[in-house]
Amino acid sequence: MAKTKYNEIYMALREKMEDGTYGFQELLPSENTLVKEFDCSRNTIRRAIGQLASEGYVQSIHGKGVRIIYQPGQQQSEFILGGIESLKEAVARNRKNYTTRVVCFAELTVDETIQRRTTFPVGAQIYYIQRVRCIEGEALIIDHNYFLKDVVRDLTPEIAERSIYEYMEKDLGESIVTTKRKMTVERVNQIDETYLDLKDYNCMAVVSSMTYNKEGVMFEFTQSRHRPDRFVFYDLAHRTK
């Protein structure tokens, strides 16, 4: 129930900023006002505002309140660089339609070639999946996923088409804690040409990710290959002294 309330408040405040009800550089209503409006605890309000701050909508000003830094008309980012979210979560946040198609699903034993690519130990049992991601009807992304079978148990193509992270958290009770990313630009390969709507592009924006659970075990290596004109990663940085 608490999570539902937090999401409700987060979405309501975000919509008011996006439609201009709360304008750029204005202050949000006070915490007391929001507590009364939404009939909830201060902690729930703070959690919703914290989420908005992490996405670049607001900034807390000591002694003054919470100022809106979102500007209507800005192109929304596809992905948040500093966060860990599934594609399902990212497109829901950006209110876009998407589909996922699994074009390869295999159970493999890590050999030296896979070990060099992923850093999984030789002999480990993994799932290897290729998933084509279509956003607003265009095939824009292909993911090459390697998941450790000991952690992501009983994975199926049907689960992979829905959301692997959702399955891990809700069905397996796993915690997804940390990810490390590397971004590169690479030439288009044959698999890209086969499955993606590339237009005239001959290169791809490539994000390689290593993701860890609460035990510090790396359970996933993913190479996500994006058509470059639709590749937008967003980051919010804070200067510390």
Automatic annotation (TrEMBL):
Keywords: DNA-binding, Transcription, Transcription regulation. The keyword DNA-binding applies. Transmembrane segments: none annotated. Residues 3-71 form the HTH gntR-type domain. PROSITE patterns: HTH_GNTR (PS50949). This is Trehalose operon repressor. Pfam families: GntR (PF00392), UTRA (PF07702). It comes from Enterocloster bolteae. InterPro entries: Bact_HTH_transcr_reg, Chorismate_lyase_/UTRA_dom_sf, TreR, Tscrpt_reg_HTH_GntR, UTRA, WH-like_DNA-bd_sf, WH_DNA-bd_sf. The keyword Coiled coil does not apply. GO terms for molecular function: DNA binding; DNA-binding transcription factor activity. One of its GO terms (biological process) is negative regulation of DNA-templated transcription.
